[in-house]
Amino acid sequence: MADQLIRATAAEGGIRAVGVITTRLTEEARGRHKLSYVATAALGRTMAAGLLMASSMKRTGSRVNVRVKGDGPLGGILVDAGLDGTVRGYVGNPSVELPPNPKGKLDVGGAVGGGYLYVVRDIGYGYPYSSTVELVSGEIGDDVAHYLVNSEQTPSALVLGVFVGAGGVTAAGGLLIQVLPKAARDEALVETLESRVAGLAGFTPLLQAGKTLPEIFNDLLGDMGLVIFPERQMVRFHCGCSFDRVLGALKILGEAELQDMIVKDDGAEAICEFCGNVYQASSDQLAQLIADLQAESTVLG
Questions:
Q1: Whole-prediction pTM
Q2: Which residue windows are transmembrane per the record (predicted)?
């Protein structure tokens, strides 16, 4: 099934639901960063969470940055996701591996450890909105739900999953269900919803059983006035890095540093942390940057 995101409402607009399948983009991230099993699960869950959070933004170009900074061996996670369905991300230690947790699952919580979740929402103008909450479990889903409740005052249930085997990622994605103020006063509705979400065995088992996102929504909300929006948004791993941007970053280093790179290394190499792309700048290209800086200095002088 193609990577995609769909939206729905229920309870006359009192419940907002978003589902996303991220199998292929998580596999791409695994390959790009040479991720271990547990690192794949951690980054995959966070990328799905980022896409789900970005889906509620309104302005074209809006993006969400999710940083998980824990004291575990994973060394942190950074994800950038957009309303346009693009996402990218990386982990601090892609090769870390841990034994399964007591439930026999990949120990994402152990890999992340204790620490903080930082979320920055950039709506394309003004100052980005940022918020920080303490990690609840390090399992990502619990932590993002905790953020949504405490920082955005929206009761939320978040189910995330990544299944990765010897052949790579075969199922990944997530489900976000939020109870808006108009429905939050209906205690019976909220209790029923909480019970159904708690009864889910996970998200990836549903995908592996052949369930589609509309079918998953219908199982949870079908008797609550479910309305599934017809638009299906494609989602993908995408990084906006380029050689021109690399040259721009090198130029900031200044003449002395660029000259040192020419003498010592006969050029420069830059690796994008988000996607792993490698860029090589020759000594001639660095010399051109120096010439550009000198020309600019002359004009300003």
A1: 0.92
A2: 157-180
